[in-house]
Every structure is written in structure tokens, then in C-alpha cells.
């Protein structure tokens, strides 16, 4: 179902992406509208699935998660049973922030956040004990240059 989004909706979405903790009054003021129309539009966009759950972005380094690894996975197995076990293994590990199935030479890429290299090794050992993987390459991010969850609406 395609949802029609107009300019006011886009302004609301930009504001909510910037800071979802704002009051309706603050959002309405920022987008040049009043509270009731803003609330109705937010409600409609939530019902349509345009807006999901509200969360808070935490600072990983402030919480001791200093190491971010991008894990490239190649597998020689592509059957449904293996894929299900792999998916279950990923969902069971809080260290995995993102997981993507790819087209091309690499089958999957994971974004894994851990305190240090030793913690990554524990994650890696647990993963390969659970699921057969042909090849794993881990890339340590030296510096995060840009991070956003905002879409360019």
C-alpha cells in the first residue's frame, strides 16, 4: 500500500527523526502547524507503517562498546534449514546491530558492536560453533565518520 506523503508530512518526519522526544507543541511549532493536525498526521503515518517504534540512540562508547566490527560472511550452504539456523543465531546475539544478505561475492555482512577484540573473538567462536560458515572476514572500524538513522525525506 503506497502512502501519500505531502510537504507537511515530510516536515513532521524530519522533525521526528531529529528528535522523537519533542512534544506535539514543539513539533507543530517547528513545522508551522497546530497540534491537532500534526497529531492526526503522525497517527496516520504510524498506522500506515511509515513510522515505527520510537527508540533512543545510545552512545556505544560511553557504555563501553568501543569496538565496531563489520563482518563479511561467505557460506557454501544456501538451503532453507541453514538459513533458518543462521538467522536464529544472529537474532540471539545482542552484539549484532545489523545483518544484511548481499548480492555479489559476499553472502552476508554484519555490524557487530563489542567492548574489545577479545569480546569479538568470543562472539565469533560462538557463531561458528552454531552455524557452519565457509569464510569470515572481520574489519575493525577505526573511526565512525558519519552515523545517522534519518532518511532524506
UniProtKB/TrEMBL annotation:
Residues 5-66 form the HTH asnC-type domain. Pfam families: AsnC_trans_reg, HTH_24. It comes from the Bacteria. InterPro entries: ArsR-like_HTH, AsnC-type_HTH_dom, Dimeric_a/b-barrel, Tscrpt_reg_AsnC-like, Tscrpt_reg_AsnC/Lrp_C, Tscrpt_reg_HTH_AsnC-type_CS, WH-like_DNA-bd_sf, WH_DNA-bd_sf. Keywords: DNA-binding, Transcription, Transcription regulation. Gene3D superfamilies: 3.30.70.920, Winged helix-like DNA-binding domain superfamily/Winged helix DNA-binding domain (1.10.10.10). SUPFAM superfamilies: Dimeric alpha+beta barrel (SSF54909), Winged helix' DNA-binding domain (SSF46785). The keyword Transcription regulation applies. PROSITE patterns: HTH_ASNC_1 (PS00519), HTH_ASNC_2 (PS50956). GO terms for biological process: regulation of DNA-templated transcription; response to amino acid. GO terms for molecular function: sequence-specific DNA binding. GO terms for cellular component: cytosol. PANTHER family: DNA-BINDING TRANSCRIPTIONAL ACTIVATOR DECR, LEUCINE-RESPONSIVE REGULATORY PROTEIN. This is Lrp/AsnC family transcriptional regulator. It comes from Palleronia sediminis.
Amino acid at each position: 500500500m503506497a502512502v501519500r506523503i505531502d510537504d507537511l508530512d515530510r516536515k513532521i518526519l524530519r522533525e521526528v527523526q531529529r528528535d522523537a522526544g519533542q512534544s506535539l507543541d514543539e513539533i507543530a511549532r517547528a513545522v508551522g502547524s497546530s497540534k491537532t493536525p500534526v497529531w492526526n498526521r503522525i497517527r496516520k503515518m504510524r498506522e500506515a507503517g511509515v513510522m515505527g517504534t520510537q527508540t533512543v540512540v545510545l552512545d556505544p562508547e560511553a557504555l563501553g562498546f568501543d569496538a565496531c566490527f563489520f563482518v563479511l560472511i561467505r557460506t557454501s550452504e544456501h538451503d532453507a534449514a541453514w538459513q533458518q539456523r543462521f538467522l536464529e543465531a544472529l537474532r540471539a546475539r545482542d552484539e549484532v546491530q545489523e545483518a544484511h544478505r548481499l548480492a555479489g561475492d559476499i553472502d552476508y555482512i554484519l555490524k557487530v558492536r563489542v567492548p574489545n577484540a577479545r569480546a569479538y573473538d568470543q562472539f565469533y567462536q560462538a557463531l561458528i560453533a552454531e552455524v557452519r560458515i565457509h569464510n569470515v572476514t572481520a574489519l575493525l572500524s577505526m573511526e565512525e565518520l558519519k552515523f545517522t538513522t534519518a532518511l532524506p525525506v
